[in-house]
Design a protein that fits this description.
The chain has 12 helices and 10 strands. It is 47% helix and 11% strand. Strands 5-4-3-6-8-7 form a 6-stranded mixed beta sheet, with helices on both faces. Strands 1-2 form a two-stranded antiparallel ribbon. Strands 9-10 form a two-stranded antiparallel sheet. By secondary structure, it is an alpha/beta fold. The protein starts with 12 loop residues before the first strand and ends in a 5-residue tail after the last helix. It is globular and about 75 Å long. It has a single domain (45-216, 225-278), classed as Rossmann fold, CATH 3.40.50.620.
């Protein structure tokens, strides 16, 4: 099969959702155009932005960092060591190796040193690991960006991620979540840094192909803490539909993002559903929050108390 674009080279990537197949060079051009068009359409980034790219060692975040650097954005990487035995070490190795290949030194946050490694925190507070991980990551994304004077935080969520989240929110009629779901969450004057998802137009398969063909070495295994994540069920359901009706994902998500959609209020609806007024400084750490104490500090206090109870001598 010949490349649809150049009509000369053999196709290396077949994309049924676009009714196209591309050779390696044309696929790179196609992929970067998809990302840059997604950035342009929703005004996610400006040329003068300082971008903090949150990298996990997986394909999506490393590919995002690669594309943004190739497009000329000023970027730095942030890796959060979750403290997951084995997996976190392998992920960190991939991040450091990639960063070195591009002349970068990523910012590293070690949750064990912060006193809240994810596996232990989950045991202490008896919450799902993914819920705890999301809270902790969001906290450090914003804190590192604010302290480092970055203008925007970028994450590697792709089309599969966003449509799985959308399907879950629709199935459960999570109207508040639906109202806020968008590839852009604006910042605030009170210290919340703008957050963007530049890969919203590209699928997981396309991102994996880009990473493989570009020679980016990434972690291929799923996080062991995500085995029971409901998002994987939604992804599988959408994959089955996509196989039968290529292009369904992008039509589904673009339709949701249409400004006329009454379920979505748009990027300006970035505040949590229970937010009242404007963000204030957390009484414990100073981070912006809509409560007296931010969710990260409340969780960390619960972990501290659980440790104290375990360490306390048993009375006889």
């Amino acid at each position: 099969m010949k490349c649809k674009r150049c009509r000369r080279a053999e196709a290396a990537v077949d994309l049924p959702s676009h009714h196209a197949a591309f050779c390696t060079d044309c696929f790179f051009l196609f992929f970067r155009r998809q990302v840059t068009e997604g950035i342009r359409k929703l005004r996610l980034l400006a040329p003068e932005d300082r971008v903090l790219v949150c990298v996990s060692g997986g394909k999506d975040s490393l590919v995002l960092w690669d594309v943004l650097m190739d497009e000329g954005y000023e970027t730095e990487g942030l890796y959060i060591d979750l403290g997951i035995d084995g997996y976190s070490d392998r992920s960190k190795e991939k991040v450091l190796a990639y960063a070195t290949s591009r002349g970068k030194t990523p910012i590293v946050v070690d949750l064990a040193k912060e006193g809240i490694p994810i596996p232990e925190a989950a045991r202490c507070v008896r919450m799902q690991e993914c819920s705890i991980c999301g809270t902790v990551k969001r906290y450090f994304f914003n804190r590192v960006a604010a302290e480092g004077k970055f203008t925007v935080v970028a994450t590697g969520h792709n089309l599969d991620d966003e449509t799985a989240r959308l399907l879950g929110n629709l199935l459960h009629w999570q109207r508040d979540h639906l109202a806020r779901q968008h590839p852009l969450l604006p910042g605030t004057d009170e210290g919340l840094v703008r957050k963007v998802k530049p890969l919203w137009r590209v699928s997981e398969v396309e991102t994996a192909a880009y990473g493989f063909l570009k020679g980016i070495d990434y972690v291929t295994e799923e996080c062991p803490m995500s085995e029971d994540a409901t998002s994987l069920v939604y992804k599988e359901a959408l994959s089955r539909i996509e196989d039968r009706m290529p292009g369904t994902r992008i039509v589904f998500y673009k339709g949701f993002l249409d400004p006329s959609n009454p379920l979505r209020k748009g990027p300006e609806a970035a505040a949590p559903a229970d937010a009242v007024g404007t963000p204030r400084a957390c009484a414990a750490c100073g981070a912006p929050t809509y409560a007296e104490t931010c969710s990260y500090c409340r969780m960390k206090e619960r972990v501290r108390k659980a440790r104290s109870l375990r360490a306390a001598p048993v009375s006889r």
